[in-house]
Amino acid sequence: MSIAIGISNAIGIAKAGLSYSNLHSVVFDGTDEYLTASKSPIFGTGNWSINFWIYRTSTSGAQRLITKSGGSDEAWSVLITNGGSMQFISNPWNDGDGTNSPGTSTWEMWTYSVDRSGNAIWYKNAANPNSKAVSSIRGDFGGGKGCLFELGKNGSSYNFAGNLDEISIWGKALSSSEITALYNSGAPTDLLTSSAVANLNHWYRMGDPGGTGSFPTILDVRGGLDMTMTNMASSNITTNVPS
Length: 243
Prior knowledge:
This protein has helices spanning 3-16, 176-183; strands at 25-29, 34-40, 48-56, 63-70, 76-80, 86-90, 95-96, 107-114, 119-124, 127-133, 144-151, 161-170, 200-204, 217-218, 227-230, 237-238.
């Protein structure tokens, strides 16, 4: 099967919600490997959530996981700080998780759920919510063309060492029950069967369902905002996955 056909089939399978399986993730070396797109997801001024699975292999320095920069709207980043805490940073607000810390050599699901009229809440493995009031804070996170979207680093530094899998971006504040369903007792599930699927804007399967046939493109099987693997090889799509 050709790469082109493989990618086409992968999109069709994922969008149809058929034959779901989680067989691959993408591993980053902590030096110069990352994913990039020339435009970014559009959050605007509404509610939103970011959900992702992480397998961290190094505790050295700050590590950027998901970053949007450029454009006339707000830049933002999800990162692990020098002190080992998960944090969302932007001009409107900085919100670190003071309750939970990322582990090493273990798969974890992290969720950041933002309700502009109430709270922004960090969850680790759908548990121990760490909440911060944001009702008085405003910011347009915009996105689209003219913005740079990256996974695994920010600019030329803060590279991540480890695996990322099943990254999703939602146009709503995910509820605790929805996050518990996504966690699925530690085994990623088909997001297209989620009760919140109407608000699922982007979903990066990180090699699934096309596997290594998708190299060097990591498909956004929901929103079509595909990313390019940079300084990587097809072997960066690995079979180390949460289960």
